[in-house]
Amino acid sequence: MATAGDMTHTGSSTAIAGVKDFFNKNLVKILAFSLFLLLALFLLYPIVAVLLKSLKGPEGWTLKYYTVFFTKSYYFQSLYNTLILGLINTFICLVFGFCLAYMATRGPWWLRKPLKIVSLIPLVAPPYLFALSLIILFGRNGFCTKLFGMDWEIYGFDGVAISQCLAFIPLAFMMIENTLQSLNPNLEESAYDMGASEATIIRTITIPLLTPGLLKAALLIFVMTIAEFGNAAILGGRTPFLAPDTYTMITGESDFEMGSVLSVVLIAPCIIIFFIHNYLLEGKKFTTIGGKPVASEPRRITPAIMVPFTLVTLISCGAIALSFLVVLLASFVNILGVDNSLVLTNYFDFTTNYAIYNSIRVSFIAALIGAAIGVLLAYVIVRGNFFGRTFLEMVSLSGFALPGTVLGIGYLLAFSAPPLKLTGTLMILALNCVFRFIAVGVEAGISKLHQINIEIEEASADLGASFLTTFWRIVLPIMFPAFVAGFIYTFMTAIVSLSAVVFLVSPGFDLAAVKIFDAAVYGEIGIASAVTVKLVLIVMLCMATLHYITKKTQTGVAQKGVF
Amino acid sequence: MEKAQKPVMLVLKDIHKFYGENEVLKGVSLEIPKGQLVTFVGPSGCGKTTLLRIVGGFTDATTGDIILDGRRVNDLPPNMRDTRICFQNYALFPHMTVSDNIAYGLKIAKWNKERIRTRVDELLKLVELSGFGDRMIDRLSGGQQQRVALARALAIEPKVLLLDEPLSNLDANLRLTMREEIRKLQERLQLTTVFVTHDQFEAMAISDRLVVLKNGLIEQVGTPIEIYDRPANEFVAGFVGYVNFLKAKVENVDREKRTARMSTEIVCSLEINMAQDVQTGEEVLLVVRPESVNLSISGNGCRPNCCKGVLKSYMYAGSIAKCTVEIGDKKMIIDQYNPREAERFHPGAEVDVEIPRNVHILKR
Amino acid sequence: MKKMWLSVVVAVAFAAVVAGSALGEEINAYMGLSPENNKKVVDLVREKTGIQINQTFQSFGEIEAKVKSEAPNFNADMVTGCGSPLAFMAKKNGWTVPFVSAGWKGISDVYADPEGHWFNIANFSFVLVGNKDNLKKKGLKMPTSWKDLLDPKWKGDIVMPSPLSSGTANMMRFSFLALYGDTEGWKFLEALDKNIHHYTRSGNAPTDLVGRGEFTLGITSDENVKARIDKGYPLIWSIPKEGTGYDGTFAFILKGTKKLDTAKKVIFFLGSQEMSSLLSGIGYMTPRPAPNALYGKTTPKYIKIDLAKAAEDRPKNNDLWKSKFRTDFK
């Protein structure tokens, strides 16, 4: 804005100042626009590509592939199984996850730490680890099968459901625990004080207040369950599920049109649930007056709650721990069930080491980019004031609702031809992980930003700092924890996830998760187990390092004393 | 002392509380008579909230007895105790309306609908929120939320009402109003109440008795007047208001007039009333409240107990002037209420400082 | 604050280091033998020619899907192991770089396309495997005819790969159809289906599953049966009296490669006696005769097969297969 004083300047310098001014004023909008372009290119475009492919035959637009899908009972059966599996899994994971989270936040101290450790390990292991351990224990020549003379068929719906539950209970636990922790313990104590029994408190206070968190966990678990095809492919037997069917359709029959149809069908329930979830959450964001944070003290939990909850906790933690133990043991066994001598040969299969190295590279790069974009997105969503802000928020959070398989196929379709040819590169794998998991970083960022008063930024701006300086000096340090959260989540999920990258690996660039999957479907349990163990150890090492760095830097940030 | 005659409602006997190795309560014993408002006050970390939570049943005492109305309640969980707590953050259920919040405990107690409605209306009227019953909690102001929390706690009249820093989330003006309202309500209902605060002025204004805590120990129990005028020790004296400590030595004692002459660190010797017995030669500490000192511009002639000093600063604020005076190398803070001739008080002026005879004496 | 930026710098530096990679004469190839056999071939090629083949194990089906989806901008320079459907399709669609390699001189048309579009480095077949321990426990004998597999006593105790995902299984299917004729062939497959526990994703999986005693019988690729027996699996294998089918393992150069010379060098070497010896040693039938690990000096009895017709019929047969075997659930 040219004031009277500016008029004395020469025309050109006013113009430059004007441009500079324009940039300064619209920086947030420019940033938002560029971020939107990125999302459109790497998140929306691949999905649209899948949709288009499913609607386009050699002769032009057609619905014939959909007609095929809905008229052939074998596809329909697949869809039915998938949805039932999704619902059962979501329900069990939520119930178990809630019990675990309740015990971890309200239960006795001695239970809390072991609970956390046991339940967090699976987050760094590939979900189909549980399929391996089920085969080892309950396969037709499995350890328990032989020992107890059991006649239990694990190849089928039951086996898949159990392994999926074990794989996703920890995720449910983690999410519910988070919301439980942020729940003001005084609320439950108040109800307790007014005479409510434990069960009444859970029914009338805890669960109603947890609804947003529970819904979110339900959405995420449902989507992950129906998209995760490792367990279904290894243990499914003759029971068809959509995700492995899609995979076979693309990689086995190389029928991209039908594969796209299956993808669209897979994505449809996810999108529907995403919208239901958003709708239900409208006006359910409870705010309470914050007081001094009070740690939730262990309560004398009544036996009516204590016994079933402890039972659930012990069963799930026991099963998870046992699965790991079994896989660990299996990695040292020569030929499982045949020659049970202990050997190290499975570990000396060095072809897999390069794949692990690749996995770390991809996940690291993905995590770095993902966390950065996530933080920026969160910033423009919360602080920005521009047309389409809600839309931007919805798109960036929609990653929660996108099955990995679909995004894998989408990337394959979208980026295999020039000028956007990315297939065969490290970047396609990294970018895929970035945009699949971006929602977490964005969300962490948003909630962090909601905690800080805009006054701090305004104060900084008031002191004459430019937008960039404010952002760099004030906003970034505050959002660093969100960056770290996004980084850690993306890193962990990217390194073990299979469903999308399996479509994108190329010669000379294999990933550990894919290697394990191949070894497992190939029947080489020993190798699969050994790679899993190596991967888990390396991921845990990475996490520990990261944790250490965060802790160090965290104190640095805290010392800045923003608050 | 007629209040102490009332029957005792709550007795705490030698309460100890450990968190691991850390002992946060180191043997607290206390009796609270029926109908009194007793305040736990002390700096943060003194154990006051822990003590309150122990009374409410949310935290277990490591050792010691909690006796409520003659019955040992150590092993009763909160939902079986006749105590009600209001948390600092009110802990109102955000997914319920005002009425539902208030009715929560009544529903648990299986009252019938009609009775619940009548009682809720009654309570809403009591806290002056009639007509607000259908509001959601987040549509209320802080003060209104505070009232709802009170109404909820009072729905079934408890034997003891526990208030955990109930006013700390309110702004200053509202805090004063709410403080009065709580006090009025408490007196009207003759409610035995334990009030926790870190704000000593609030504590003084609202309580029948104060319990001053520090590091898990009771420093003094007494009425506001006792605590302010006759603090048991330096900590209590300093905690309930600003104080100038004067080191003094008893020169001679006049048993008849019950006065003692003392030499002090501000050079001049003072004659002090003996509220308690002191011996000649004893070293003591005089508790001089800023507002008890008389300050005047040096004129001719000095009255008794008067020392000469130099005015270092003078902050005039209408009804009060805050002054710093240097006597020798001792700095004293003096509050002048209703200041007169303020123009004459300027830094550097020579002043007369008159220490009253009735200052409190602390043994050293 | 300083510490925070320091950590970011460290992170970026680490990312830069890990992003950089290898050196030397390299070539990218799609290769679908099996993870361990891929490695053996890659090692031999590197040892003898100094060329590093970058590959990732993928099944024939996966490779086919990849090549199809990428055409005509391939991510790899060549294919060094795929099934016949892709080889014939590639030739038809002009995705190959035809050339006559001196290394393949004197090799029959079964193994090398006269026009130089494709080179078949190894023929593989399928065999019947049984678990010795399970057979003994149940007092059963290895079947001697494929028809014996239809006996209800094997119900739920046989595994074979799925032709939807496995090239080997596709070979099994077209072999049985060739053996019995289309109508009778499908009847045979339907009757067999009653006894099949499930269809595995990979063509080799039945070997391991039967080897570990999960199932008693398996119809499986012959490629690593020998290796599993050597490793100690209690396996017994046979070719029933009707014989077995076969398919090739095809190599060709993908159009558009920037490393044509390197690719040609690889093709040249794939036709060598050393390569044939290696693959024979694993159990493949190879372009140049060599002692075969599985079959010794005998040649197994083969069913007569028209590979071109088999490739053409595949989509139709897949549909038929799905509608027949994917609707009932056990």
How many β-strand stretches of chain A? Answer: 4
Q: Please count the helical segments of chain C.
A: 12
Q: In angstroms, what separates the terminal alpha carbons of chain A?
A: 34 Å
Count of domain modules of chain A = 2
CATH class of the largest domain in chain C: Alpha Beta
CATH topology of the largest domain in chain C: D-Maltodextrin-Binding Protein, domain 2
Query: How are strands sequenced across the largest beta sheet of chain A?
Result: 1-2
The biggest sheet of chain A amounts to: 2 strands, antiparallel
Quaternary state of this entry equals heterotrimer
Largest sheet of chain C: 9 strands, mixed
β-sheet strand percentage of chain C? 15-25%
* Radius of gyration of CA atoms of chain C, rounded to a whole number: 22 Å
Please give the number of β-strands of chain C: 9
Number of domains of chain C: 2
CATH architecture descriptor text of the largest domain in chain C:
3-Layer(aba) Sandwich
Task: Name the overall outline of chain A.
Answer: globular
Low-confidence stretches of chain A: 1-9, 287-293, 556-563
Task: Provide an overview of this structure.
The complex is a heterotrimer of chains A (563), B (364) and C (330). Chain A is mainly alpha-helical and 563 residues long. Chain A folds into 2 domains: 1-62 and 343-563, Orthogonal Bundle (MetI-like fold); 76-330, Orthogonal Bundle (MetI-like fold). Chain A contains 22 helices and 4 strands. A two-stranded antiparallel ribbon of chain A has the order 1-2. In chain A, strands 3-4 form a two-stranded antiparallel ribbon. In chain A, helix 7 (157-182) crosses helix 9 (198-227) and helix 20 (467-496) runs antiparallel to helix 22. Residues 1-9, 287-293 and 556-563 of chain A have low confidence and may be disordered. Chain B is of the alpha+beta class and 364 residues long. Chain B is 23% helix and 37% strand. Chain B has helices at 48-56, 98-108, 113-126, 142-154, 172-189, 200-206, 224-229, 234-239; strands at residues 8-19, 22-33, 37-41, 63-68, 71-72, 83-86, 160-164, 192-197, 209-214, 217-222, 244-254, 259-264, 269-273, 283-288, 294-297, 306-317, 320-327, 330-337, 350-354, 360-363. The longest helix of chain B is centred in the middle third of the chain and has 18 residues, at 172-189. The relative contact order of chain B is 0.11. Chain C has helices at 2-19, 35-49, 60-70, 84-93, 132-138, 167-180, 182-195, 205-211, 225-231, 260-270, 273-282, 307-325, and strands at residues 26-30, 52-54, 78-82, 119-131, 158-161, 196-200, 217-221, 235-238, 246-253. In chain C, 49% of the residues are buried. In chain C, strands 1, 2, 3, 4, 5, 6, 7, 8 and 9 form a 9-stranded mixed beta sheet that branches. The radius of gyration of chain C is 22 Å and the shape is globular. The model of chain C is unreliable at 15-23 (pLDDT under 50). Chain C is of the alpha/beta class. Chain C has 12 helices and 9 strands. Chains in contact: A-B, A-C. Chains A and C meet through helix 3, helix 11, helix 14, helix 21 and helix 22 of A and helix 1, strand 1, helix 3, strand 6 and helix 8 of C.
